[in-house]
Specification:
The structure holds two protein chains of two kinds.
Chain A: H1 7-13, E1 71-74, H2 77-88, H3 108-111, H4 119-136, H5 139-146, H6 156-171, H7 177-194, H8 197-210, H9 212-215, E2 216-219, E3 222-223, E4 231-232, H10 235-246, H11 253-260, H12 267-279, H13 282-294, H14 317-336, E5 348-351, H15 353-359, E6 372-375, H16 389-392, H17 403-414, H18 440-449, H19 451-465, E7 479-480, E8 483-484, E9 489-491, E10 494-496, H20 499-508, H21 510-525, H22 534-546, H23 551-559, H24 562-565, E11 566-567
Chain B: E1 3-6, E2 37-38, E3 44-46, H1 50-61, H2 65-74, E4 79-85, E5 93-104, E6 119-123, E7 129-137, E8 140-154, E9 157-172, E10 178-187, H3 188-197, H4 202-214, E11 218-221, E12 224-236, E13 239-241
Parallel strand pairs in B: 6-13
Antiparallel strand pairs in B: 1-12, 2-3, 4-5, 5-6, 5-7, 7-8, 8-9, 9-10, 10-12, 11-12
Classes of the chains: A mainly alpha, B alpha+beta.
Chain lengths: 574, 243
């Protein structure tokens, strides 16, 4: 009840509007034309190798890169959690609901750039803010949170000493004197009413946590001196942008210090910090976040199948499959530092007891034994990402496989092709099995025989049929409704004999490399690229090829690229 | 093994094996007056006096015995594995090695109430492992006679039962599934001792001890049969036993 006394005042402080703050730092010297992409391998990451003084790759096509417009991005749920737990410890419970993520074009990070906060969301953020403030200021923790001992219920100096660093970390920039004064005033008024310094301070913390400066990533840039039609990210905005891309969390003190010192505003300084971030264990979390969004792995939490048809299915299978895929990506990127496309063909993967049973390979004797790294037998019909439950079960129906969904994932997710949605007046249901059309392959022929369907389905179904040896939960099978499964097909002019052959064709497909760069670009910048940005993606793709398509190299190149550092004007900011 | 049940006798018909090579009529003293049965396929001389004990247990537990055993299987308490090694042909192979052992793990159970296939289990240290030669003929695995042991764990009971002149016959199905019968002679004195260790009412304990003496039908020595014949029906799914 007490907390409601001042909530009106706090909301006024946290009212949405143009984010305020200290004036942006002076523009750095123009660095156009320089490229700081450098080896980011384990051996060289810590070293501050001199950056090459020329672009490593000339953009194919020759079109001039036009950066996207700058925008605000709301913290995703994962980013909110990571902010709190990175700054205050993993023992802080974030158990209240918050505004759900908005997924646009497959990415929550893109939706975040288009999302506002609903009235319900405001209430949820408010409740969460007070809950967190209370946890941060419980007696056992308050010494760590506050850092000073108040002289009495009213102690502006102590409140200021606590709120200045907290504000810097939560808002990811130093507070202006006016902002700090306002927060100290909130703490004072609440303490006067409640007769307790820490309870009063809790209201100021709640205000910090409800502010748009915390809930939104303010990345608007400053005018580019040499190109008035463009903006460039500098200082704290760039620090925040970098940290959320590479860590999916807030900048640490070292990164904020680098921003204050202007280090990020030089190519060398930016490269140095990008290297440091990519060597941090938090970079694994950043990669996991990207892979989770790209492959829509969050949907595995709600995976359902007809247990009459698939008695082995259980709700625990989806989360285990998600973790399997994430572990495989993490290992490929950070431990093996190998070409990410190997993930399409590798026989090495991580399994739990339950997953091993689905894959029919030896594994741990109990689920509580956790994950074990295994190598699938050489003669195993299964291999690579496309042979995992996370892909096979997610791109299936509850009662049957779906070569269309699976093929669409390959076409769009792996090759970045575009498949338009089906026309609204088309019946997408397949006919029931009959004596003439027993297998799914035979029934799907109808998709390819009608003009309205064939144009798109020819780009999906043949690829998805290559995954037919795996049922709707990902178990291997030889037969479909009494018919021996034929997994052969054709991929963009190349025949494939079976599932394994398909994975090899995909690994070598010329679009696979650029597609990964494209997905990372979308994730990092929070939007789907427009034509003027394709030259930048081409440049990054070509660079990735020279570095063996290693994910950490690609992330480094992207983090230090023009596509990441620059923005076009917004409608509000000419 | 995903399911293990006592092979029941009904109207003189029972699963099992002709363990003593005799088709014994009622009153034959060589089998201590216990009659043989006929298999469902019509083969005579089937020895399975355990079916009489099973009938008694059914009566005493109101038919709960199979459920208790199944629960022990499903919760991982009673996991038994048959492993085949050296199999060149799953339809015809005159010489394979069969390993029969209890294993451990925390299995997952499917919506059909049975252990999911292809699960992995660990061997149990210091637990008897029976290894014997076997053959596969027309997709049917046959092993025995062999001397083996069955480690049993049901509810709070843990014991090892020796199997004398053991036989196993199982049809190998697709994807490593199998269905069959395990049989052999069990020692009256050993089981009597085991019964004495069980947490059951004393009256029932005494009844069971007396009863197994009356059903003894094998290994007649010194005017008494020292063993009784037993047959267990089982089915199983493919699994892995970790090394």
């Amino acid at each position: 009840m007490k907390r409601r006394i001042l909530s009106g005042a706090l909301l006024a402080l946290a009212a949405c509007g143009q984010p305020s703050g200290p004036p942006p730092p002076p523009l750095p010297p123009q660095d156009a034309g320089r490229d700081v992409t450098a080896d980011v391998s384990r051996d060289t990451l810590p070293a501050d190798r001199p950056a090459p003084d020329r672009p490593l790759v000339v953009a194919p096509g020759g079109g001039e890169f036009q950066p996207p417009r700058a925008t605000l991005r709301r913290l995703t749920q994962a980013q909110y959690r990571n902010c709190i737990q990175d700054l205050y410890g993993e023992d802080i419970a974030i158990s209240r609901p918050m505004e759900p993520d908005s997924v646009v074009d497959g990415f929550a990070s893109i939706g975040a750039a288009e999302a506002s906060i609903s009235p319900r969301g405001v209430e949820q953020y408010e409740a969460l803010a007070y809950d967190l403030a209370e946890q941060l200021l419980v007696p056992a923790r308050r010494a760590r949170t506050v850092g000073c001992t108040p002289a009495g219920p009213i102690d502006d100096a102590c409140a200021r000493a606590a709120l200045a660093p907290a504000g810097r970390r939560l808002w990811r920039r130093p507070l202006s004197p006016e902002e700090l004064d306002a927060l100290v005033a909130v703490a004072r008024r609440a303490a006067m009413t409640l007769g307790d310094f820490h309870q009063g301070l809790g209201f100021a913390f709640a205000a910090l946590l409800q502010s748009p400066d915390f809930l939104f990533r303010v990345e608007l840039g400053v005018p580019d001196r040499a190109r008035p039609d463009r903006r460039v990210f500098v200082g704290h905005e760039l620090a925040s942008r970098l940290a959320f891309f590479l860590w999916n969390g807030p900048p640490d003190d070292a990164l904020l210090d680098a921003a204050v010192a202007g280090a990020l505003d030089t190519p060398e300084g930016l490269a140095s910090e990008a290297r440091r971030l990519l060597l941090s264990p938090k970079a694994r979390r950043g990669l996991r976040s990207f892979v989770t969004e790209w492959l829509e792995l969050a949907r595995l939490d709600d995976l359902t199948k007809d247990t009459q048809l698939f008695p082995s299915f259980s709700p625990e299978l989806g989360p285990a499959a998600r973790e399997q895929t994430l572990r495989d990506f993490e290992r490929m990127a950070f431990d093996l530092e190998d070409d990410w496309r190997e993930l399409l063909v590798t026989r090495e993967t991580h399994v739990t007891h339950r997953l091993a049973a689905v894959y029919a390979v030896p594994g741990p004797a109990r689920e509580t034994d956790g994950f074990r790294l295994i190598t699938l037998p050489e003669n195993s019909p299964r291999r690579g990402l496309l042979g995992q439950v996370s892909v096979l079960a997610l791109r299936s129906h509850p009662v049957a496989t779906s070569p269309t969904l699976r093929g669409r994932f390959i076409r769009e997710g792996i090759l970045c092709g575009f498949i338009p949605p089906p026309p609204v007046d088309v019946n997408t249901a397949l006919p029931a099995p009959s004596m003439e059309r027993r297998s799914l392959r035979e029934r799907l022929q109808l998709h390819l025989s009608g003009e309205a369907c064939a144009g798109c389905h020819i780009r999906m179904d043949p690829l998805g049929l290559g995954l037919e040896p795996f049922d709707a939960i990902g178990r291997f099978r030889r037969m479909d409704n009494g018919v021996v499964i034929d997994a052969s097909g054709r991929l963009d002019g190349m025949d494939f004999r079976d599932f394994q052959d398909l994975t090899r064709r995909l690994r070598e497909h010329p679009d696979a490399g650029s597609c990964m760069v494209t997905h990372l670009y979308r994730y990092a910048t929070g939007h789907v690229e427009g034509d003027p940005e394709l030259s930048e993606i081409d440049r990054l793709t070509a660079f990735a090829e020279t570095r063996g398509n290693r994910l950490r190299e690609i992330m480094f190149a992207l983090a230090t690229s023009d596509g990441f550092r620059r923005a076009g004007p917004t409608a509000e900011m000419p | 093994m995903t399911r293990v049940v006592f092979a029941r006798e009904r109207m003189g018909v029972s699963e099992g094996f002709d363990l003593d090579g005799r088709d014994t009529p009622m009153g034959d003293m060589a089998s201590c007056s216990r009659p043989d049965y006929v298999s469902p396929e019509g083969l005579r001389g089937v020895d399975n006096q355990l079916s009489q004990l099973a009938a008694l247990l059914d009566l005493q537990t109101q038919g709960a015995v199979d459920g208790l055993v199944q629960a022990a299987v499903n919760n991982g308490q009673l996991l038994m594995a048959v492993t085949l090694e050296g199999v060149d042909d799953e339809r015809e192979d005159p010489c394979v090695d069969m390993i029969f052992q209890r294993v451990q793990g925390v299995p997952t159970v499917g919506a059909d109430g049975m252990l999911d296939p292809w699960q992995s289990y660990d061997p149990i240290p210091d637990t008897p492992v029976t290894r014997t030669r076997a053959r596969i003929h027309e997709g049917v695995l046959e092993a025995g006679p062999f001397e083996g042991s069955v480690a049993v764990a049901v509810l709070d009971a843990r014991f090892v039962l020796d199997l004398h002149g053991g036989r196993l016959r199982a049809r190998l199905g697709e994807d490593g599934a199998l269905t069959g019968v395990l049989g052999g002679g069990m020692s009256v004195s050993q089981l009597s001792d085991i019964i004495g260790t069980l947490n059951i009412p004393e009256a029932f304990m005494n009844l069971a001890r007396s009863y197994i003496r009356t059903i003894a039908d094998l290994d007649r020595r010194e005017g008494r049969c020292q063993q009784f014949s037993a047959a267990l029906s089982f089915s199983g799914r493919a699994a892995f036993v970790n090394r």
